[in-house]
Design goal:
The protein has 10 helices and 16 strands. By secondary structure, the protein is α/β, with parallel strands linked by helices. The protein has a single domain (8-57, 74-193, 213-301), classed as Aldolase class I (TIM Barrel, Alpha-Beta Barrel), CATH 3.20.20.70. The strands form 4 sheets. Strands 3-16-15-10-9-8-7-4 form an 8-stranded parallel β-sheet. It has a 4-stranded antiparallel β-sheet with strand order 5-6-14-11, with no helix packed on it. Strands 1-2 form a two-stranded antiparallel sheet. It binds ligand RRO. Ligand RRO binds at residues 24, 48, 71-75, 124, 127-129, 189-190, 211.
Length: 302
């Protein structure tokens, strides 16, 4: 039997492990992205970058709940031109998350990020925190198809499309992304939710609603991965409540080829990547697997 390896190939990218941070938990500094890679992540994902600098929403933007985290950051970022000035390629895989408020913005930012020398683009059409301002493209499969096709025309890089769990038929949206040329689906972004303070009798976040991540989200995103895997051929990057090796294995068995870690990275820090690698390696040894793709989607066969 060949030697156990966690390395994967994802849409042409060679990753030393299937783990990466979720967009939004890191910012865009090259040093910190590099640190994530050195700590055991196969790729590092930037905060979502838009066409112009944005401050984001007013505080409080963040609250820890019993089974997860609620955030309404509101897309704070320094803008694509700033990123282009600061970033000049790397020797490790960097995935740039990006957004726009219309198709032209998405195309413009995709071109700038391609010029900056990142390894892949993650098209964020599923932020739950700017719905009044720019809507949510991921709610409509036709929009997702059109924006994906436009971005694919504008870049030579692999494009991963990040979908929302807050839709009735995620398969329809994933199929539209695939038909438009997406190279992978990231499933999922956070789920729109609310927290209320009983004493103050008011919503806790200044934005009123936020996006729920962490363990509360896991069974929902896992179901999304499951459904997408049954209907779509391109690879799936699972995202939502991956805390430990068992969560990771569940996602692989449901059909994810790679995984993003958001809340667990925020709470436990850089050690989370090697902890996941150690736990998944142990599982693979016990089950006689030498590669991750030997058990991706396996739960569908039972
Ligand atoms: O910045 C945010 O408020 C945010 C974004 Br862009 C996103 O995609 N998902 C999320 O939970 N928060």
């Amino acid at each position: 039997m060949s030697k156990l390896s966690l390395a994967i190939e994802l849409a042409g990218l060679r990753l030393k492990t299937p783990f990466m941070n979720a967009a939004g938990v890191l910012g865009i500094s090259l040093d910190i992205l590099r640190r994530v890679h050195m700590a055991g992540a196969g790729a590092a994902v930037t905060k979502s970058i838009g066409p112009e600098p944005r401050n984001g929403h007013k505080n409080p933007t963040f609250i820890f709940l019993e089974f997860g985290v609620l955030n309404a950051m509101g897309l704070p970022n320094p803008g694509a031109e700033y990123f282009l000035k600061k970033f000049s390629g790397t020797d490790f895989p960097v995935i740039a998350s990006f957004f726009g408020s219309n198709f032209e913005d998405f195309v413009k930012v995709a071109k700038i990020l391609t010029e900056a020398g990142v390894s892949a683009l993650e098209l964020n059409c599923s932020c739950p925190n700017v719905i009044e301002e720019m809507g949510m493209l991921a709610a409509d499969s036709r929009n997702v198809g059109q924006v994906t096709a436009a971005v694919k025309q504008a870049t030579s890089l692999p494009v991963f499309v990040k979908l929302s769990p807050s839709v009735t038929d995620i398969v329809k949206v994933a199929k539209a992304a695939q038909e438009a040329g997406a190279d992978a689906i990231t499933a999922t972004n956070t789920l729109r939710a609310i927290a209320i303070n009983a004493e103050l009798k008011t919503p806790i976040l200044a934005n009123v609603t936020g996006g729920l991540s962490g363990s509360a989200l896991k069974p929902i995103s896992l179901r999304c991965v499951w459904e997408i895997y049954e209907n779509v051929e391109i690879p799936i990057i699972g995202c939502g409540g991956v805390e430990n090796w068992r969560d990771a294995v569940e996602y692989f068995l449901a059909g994810a080829s790679a995984l993003q870690v958001g809340t667990a990275f925020m709470t436990r820090g850089f050690s989370v990547f090697n902890e996941l690698s150690d736990g998944v390696s142990e599982y693979m040894k016990k089950n006689d697997y030498s590669r991750i793709n030997e058990f991706v989607g396996m739960a569908h066969e039972s």
